[in-house]
Amino acid sequence: MRQKRRLALAVLLAAAGLAIATYPVRSTWWGGWIGAIAEAGVVGGLADWFAVTALFRRPLGLPIPHTGLIPRNWEMLATRVGTMVGDRVLTREYLAQELSKLDVATLIARAAEWASRRDLEEVTRMLLGWVARELPSTAASEIVTRLQRLLVTQPLAPLVAAGLELARDYGWVERASGSLARSLAEALERSDAQEALAEMIDDLIARYRERTAFYPRLALGLADLLGFIDRRRIVAALRAGLAEAGRDPDHPLRRQLVESVADLVVRLRTDPALIARVEGVKAELLGSSLVAELAEEAATAVRQNLLRDLARPKSEAVTWLADRLEQWREALVEDAALRVDIDHWVKARALELLDRYHGRIAALIEQGVRALGPDGAVRLIEEHAGDDLQYIRVNGTVVGGLAGGALYAMHLVLRLF
Fold first, then answer.
1. Helices 156-169 & 252-270 angle (0-180, nearest 10)
2. Residues 47, 395: contact at Cβ < 8 Å?
3. How far apart are CA 293 and CA 392, in angstroms?
4. Whose C-alpha in 42, 72, 152, 251 is 20 to 30 A from the C-alpha of 414?
């Protein structure tokens, strides 16, 4: 824009210089004609300079009325820009029409074909690392607080049933059972855990003997005395069973857990007593601050474990998520009907959001313009329209000179008569 200002100033100074240069020969017809062109060009250039400058500031700082129009009227300008763009340009019908032209299915297919397994793993690792490092430690408790407010009037049993059903359909229950079995087996390899479990077995046997009759209690005592009840063997057998369950996806224990989850889903939807108990537990949890504290501690532990897992070359979390993303990617590439369904779903949700929030577009644009302030509005308009405005000054000088030359030519012609 500075170059265009220099150009406009140079044209104006050229006109002024031409007027001065032709002053000695003003008495001749051609000298008067050239002088009239130059003088009219100076007048036109100065007039347009004043008009352009008056839009943004006071010319020469003088308090001339109706100057500095944009800084003085920027709030009204913000309102009118918001109304014009939000209510007359970006109308609901126009946006809906443009949305209907967008081929979401094709975009999804191209993105799915472009992405590779390595890309999915890199993006997954980057996102998990960002989440583990950047989320504040209080995020878990804040999420729990928001969920508590949301669940006050929302029945909990159907949500739990839907979540369990989703976890079962995607194989999360089997994976969680395997991970839990492996974790317990690894924990039982430690001597302190074995001692703790042995104490628990002793306590259970003691409680059972207290509740049984004389002869069963006597038989248990003799078996313990003769060494038939070997706590280390029980712990070892339990550890071996858990390790086997962690390795074998078809282990009966894991199959039984999946079947139990399926049965629980049905009961959460049909058993009034269970539904009432779930609602009672919900009421207790919503009124307690312990849940938020536990969630924060659990989130801290999950974050630490996730960071340790991501530090490994072969991250289990990254591999698992990348496997699922790869399955979805292949489904998107191969299943055209799925892409069409996603296209319809995305557009339907977008139209719902458009109907809900279209009225706020004008207000949003107005707030954006207001946030610029008077100086910011001036800078924005000068940056985007400054070149054209400087050409107005150039055109004013040229057109003014041509008009002056035409009038002087008419004067010369009339003098002949």
1. 150
2. no
3. 67
4. 42
**pLDDT, average across residues 135-143:** 64
Residue 334 belongs to a domain:
no
Total of domains in the chain: 3
Q: What is the enclosing helix (H) or strand (E) of 273?
A: helix 272-286
Q: From CA 66, how far away is CA 64, in angstroms rounded? A: 7
Specify the DSSP element, H or E, that contains 85.
none
**pTM: predicted TM-score of the whole model, two decimal places:** 0.43
Q: Which of 5, 2, 385 is nearest to 377 (CA)?
A: 385
Residue 108 maps to a domain:
no
- Indicate if 161 and 180 belong to the same structural domain: no
For residues 145 and 189, membership in a common domain is answered with: no
Q: Is the distance from CB of 26 to CB of 32 less than 8 angstroms?
A: yes
Of 312, 309, 326, 377, give the one whose Cα is nearest residue 132: 309
Domain extent, residue 303, equals 135-169+271-311
Return the axis-axis angle of helices 316-334 and 290-310, rounded to nearest 10°: 80
Cα gap 367→260, rounded to integer Å: 55
When pLDDT is cut at 50, 70 and 90, the band that residue 273 belongs to is confident
Dmax over CA atoms of the chain, in Å, equals: 149
Query: Following DSSP, what letter does each residue of 363-382 receive, concatenated?
Result: HHHHHHHHHHHHHHHHHHHH
User: Token pair for residue 407?
Assistant: 């009038």
Q: For residues 322, 325, 330 and 331, what is the CA-based torsion angle, rounded to 10 degrees? A: 150
Q: Of the candidates 363, 343, 352, which has an alpha carbon nearest to the alpha carbon of residue 96? A: 352
Structure tokens at 384: 């985007």
| DSSP sequence for 32-77 | HHHHHHHHHHHHHHHHHHHHHHHHHS-GGG---TT-SHHHHTHHHH
The pLDDT confidence band at residue 386, using thresholds 50, 70 and 90, is low
Between the alpha carbon of residue 158 and those of residues 170, 173, 271, 281, 313, the distances in Å are 18, 18, 11, 14, 40
Query: What is the chain's length?
Result: 417
- Same domain flag for 178 and 225: yes
The percent helix, strand, coil of the chain (3-state, each to 5) is 85, 0, 15
